[in-house]
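Look over this record as teaching material.
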Amino acid sequence: MIEGPYFVLTVVGVLGTGLVAGVFCAFSTFVMKGLAALPPAQGIAAMQSINVTAVMPAFMLVFLGSAAVCAVIAVVTFVLWPDEGTVELLLGSALYLFGCFGVTIAANVPRNNKLAGMSPGTPEAIAYWPTFVSEWSIWNHVRMVASAAGMVSYVLALT
């Protein structure tokens, strides 16, 4: 069984990846559906506001902090190569770092940036909105599942 500071680090990884999975689960299950049900200009304005608020310290500490913890867990695992939990620790780190953090950078942020450059009531924004909701939601599902799977993998490493 994992012990000492390594145990604490893994528990922090469980908490961080689980919290992020929960945020993305909320978006996947009801936030985006609620925004899509609004008139397009209102949905766009609301999403633009959410995207500004998301980069405030509270969420970024959890999101980026989890990425840092996952990276540390991966490095420590490679260096120490523990007798137990190695595969689960490396898998949990990879799932979060690539499936959540990487997807956010490569897929969700570019869509957010494109939407941020549009005025909510313009024909261009209104035409783009259904595509944004669909594509952004698909990638959000990916990062939700990756975060949750990373959490499960870390929990399995602790057992």
Observations:
- The CA atoms of residues 87 and 157 lie 8 Å apart.
- The chain has one domain: 4-158.
